[in-house]
Every structure is written in C-alpha cells, then in structure tokens.
Amino acid sequence: MYYWQLSLIFIMFVLLALTKVYQKNITGFIAAFFKKKEKIKGSDMAIAKQSNCLLTAYVLADNSNYAGYDLLQTLTICNLEYDSDLRIFHKYNEKNERWFSLALASEPGTFDLDKLGSASFTGVALFMELATLGANAKLALDDFLVTLEQIQEELGGVIVDARRNPISNSLKDKWNNYADNICRQHGTRDLFDS
Predict the structure, then answer these.
(1) Does the pLDDT value for residue 91 go beyond 50?
(2) pTM for the complete prediction?
C-alpha cells in the first residue's frame, strides 16, 4: 500500500508539471521558437534591439473550426512548407531563406500530420522576426500580409493581431515602416521610392 501511494503521488506530480507546460500561450511558443534560431549577426542584432520587430497575426475561424484537411490544402496553396522537426510550417523565398512561420493558434501550437485529417482547429498564428530579414524585410512583409489574406479567403474567418483585435491600416503602416527602416539600414530601397 505504501508503494501504491508513492506511485500515485508521483503520477500526480508528473500530471501537474505537464499541465503547467501546456498552460503557456502561443506567444510563449513563438518566443521559444526564436530562441532556438541561430544567433543574429552584429548589425542585425542592433536593428532588432532598436525596434520590436516580432510580428504576429492570427487567422481565426468565425463560428466553426477549420477542418484539418482543408487547412492543409490551404497551406499548400500558400506555398508553406512543413518542418517535421518543429512540426510547424514555414514560408521561404526563392533562395530558401525562411521569411515567416505558421503554427496553430491553440495549444500546443504544433501540427500532427498523422491526425490532421480528423482534427479541427480554431485558427493559425503567423509570425516573423522582421529585423533578421535585412534587405528582404519589405518583400517578406508583403508576402506575410498576402498569405494572411489568402488563408482568410480560402477558409473564412477573421485576421487579428496578437491582442485579438482586427488588424488596422495603422498597424500595417507601422509594420511597413519597420520593414522600410530595416531595408534602408541594409542599403536597399524600394524601386518606386522617389
């Protein structure tokens, strides 16, 4: 009986620890993801410190969840590629440089492709670290915004920011200003700037 009680206490301790791990929100998942990334080089680090350039946006289902198979088809249409190590999707440019990533909007944030067909989801979170993109910041941001709209167009729902407010034109302008500043600091300009 004594060993049984110790086993029960141990199991309760493990369950409590797992519960605390899964209570982290998607923002915690995103922050952990960027900590795993390779270190940022000198000038990029200075730009990252100058402004808060982690962009996060969500596409959330309106009334019912997104069906797993429909979501997978949409992500394929958007040219997002699955990362089997991190179990999330990424968008790459033609030089195979990662521009942004996509995770589930609900815990644990990762995709299980084996169960995707029978699952449903409340939405997806797209996130990017704008400062690390250097001269590609503006192009990557444009693709980020187009992908948000494309997912919404294919699946329905609403596009919101990290506070779950609809993304306003002023927020888009702020993100565009970040991207423009990063491009300028890397010696690039938009071809249509005067």
Answers:
(1) yes
(2) 0.71
